[in-house]
Each structure stands twice: as structure tokens, then as C-alpha cells.
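JOB MANIFEST
job_type = single_chain_structure
chain_count = 1
residues = 310
[input]
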Amino acid sequence: MSSKDPYEILGVSRTASQDEVKRAYRRLAKAHHPDRNPGSKVAEQRFKEIQAAYEVLGDPQRRAQYDRFGAGGPTPEFRSWSPRGDDDAVGVHFGFDSLGDLGSIFEQFFRRGPQGAAGYTARTGSTAARGGDVEHSVEVSFEESIRGTTREVHLRGADGTSERIEFRIPPGVTDGQRIRVRGRGNPGPGGRGHLIIVCRVRPDAHFRREGRDLVVDLPVSFPQAALGGSAAVRTLDGPVRIKVPPGATSGTRLRLRGKGVPDPRGGEPGDLYAVVQVTVPRELSETARELIRRLEAELEPRVRAGAEAK
């Protein structure tokens, strides 16, 4: 891009608000950052133009001076920053009309890394090493892993200072899933690394997870299994009634649509499966024993005939 007008470089009008300028800068800097375009000289030059334009328009005073005098007027004053961020860094002067050789500009004052994209070193045309990542484990309940939650950690730096970091755990995380909190790791010449959160999900006494589906056991009595009826099923939103078909056996799966794990992307949630578990009482009265004997005498011929047919 050959334009020397910072407004044209960022693609904003002269009446654009500072927020509009910032949004345009972030969008363009992200698209043309050297990390996203390794080895591209075109992207590197474009990135430099974007940074130089934002150095002018991102500061209201510098922007007002440019609006008043233009590229040919008094040269705006910019400061260079050392890697330590010293306040007594040497002042550097240049006119925006010198953008034909943007490389020399960045040689002087972008060693600190541009605003919003710290770590880029124009002198070498590469990205300075970012600090190391920090890994931290957090434990969440089964329900929190389904619905999402927030957590905070306190990390102690090498200098002994403590930092409180709050972050969001999105709905639907799984055990062992890693979440990246950008820019909260160890410091380095190219900026801080990332904080890597490893989620540990506590097992639940009732629910099991299969992808975005939930599974729960449904105890039913033998009469219920044989005759059918309805039974209460535990869900994350509380118990609901479900129809048990006649002749249900242990292992039969009954589906409740939409009662599973929500889709974090806004799609359809998973389902909940109630797995029938036919229960047999351990102790029986004499009357119950007699009734079961009569039932056995009634059913045994049918069972035997079914077995012989196979």
C-alpha cells in the first residue's frame, strides 16, 4: 500500500471516532501480523504502515496535530521505548511524509513492540520471544462443566508478587480439556506468555457423559418393567416423568430430547438417556412368594417356547 495518509492506511474517515480508529487498527494488525504471515515481505511492510498510522491517529493530540498541519507540517514528536519500558527513553522526531521508507521509522521507535501487538521487532523483521506459558489445574463439578462457570487463581511471580486472575470456563468442557487465557503467563521480551488452564471434572454420582449426551440409570420394579407405566427420571433441571414401555428389560435406553449437554456454539443440545435397571427385591413376604410362583407357572411355558424357537 503506497498511501502516506494514515486515514487511508487504516481505512477510516477523518470524522471517525477514536473507538472506530482502534477497531480498524486491531483488525488490520491482526490480519497482517508477521506471526500470521511468516516470510511475507508484503505483509511485513503493510504491518509497519498500519502501526505507523495508528501511532498518529491512536493518540488524540497527535491526530489533532496531523489534522491541522498534514504530512508536510511540523513533524509530530514520537518517543522510542527501550525493552525495559524506561520513561527516560530518547525522543525521536520524524515526519509522516517519510513513510516512503517505513523501515527506518520502525528501526527507531518500534523496538518496544507496537501498541496492541507487543513483541514485534522491526530491526530484525521478526517477533521477539514471548514469555513461557504457565499451566494450572482447576477442579469443577460435573454440573459446572456442563453449564460453565467462572474461576480465579492467584499466581505468584518470580519477584514474589501475587496476581489474581479471573477467567471463564465455557459450558461443555471435558475432563482434561485445556483453556488458554492469553497474556497471563510469564513475562518475556515479546510480551507475556499464556496461562493454560487444565480442567479436572469431578465424577458425578448419577450422570455419565457420552459426548454431548448424558446417561443416567433408571431403576424400575419388575411390575413396572412388565406392565409399563411412568417413572421419575433425574435431569440437570430436576426430575421429570418418562413413559416406560411394557416389557422393558435392563439396559433399555429411553431418550429425553434436548436434556443433555448444551452446544457452546449455539447448536442443538445433546439428549439424556435413561437406562432401565429392573430391580429385584431381596426380601419377600410369603404372600409375595406365592404370587411370584403363580406368575412363574404362567410365564414359564412361554419362556421355554421362545427359547426352543431360537
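[summary]
The chain has three domains: 6-127, 134-201, 207-279.
The first strand starts at residue 77 and ends at 79.
exit_status = 0
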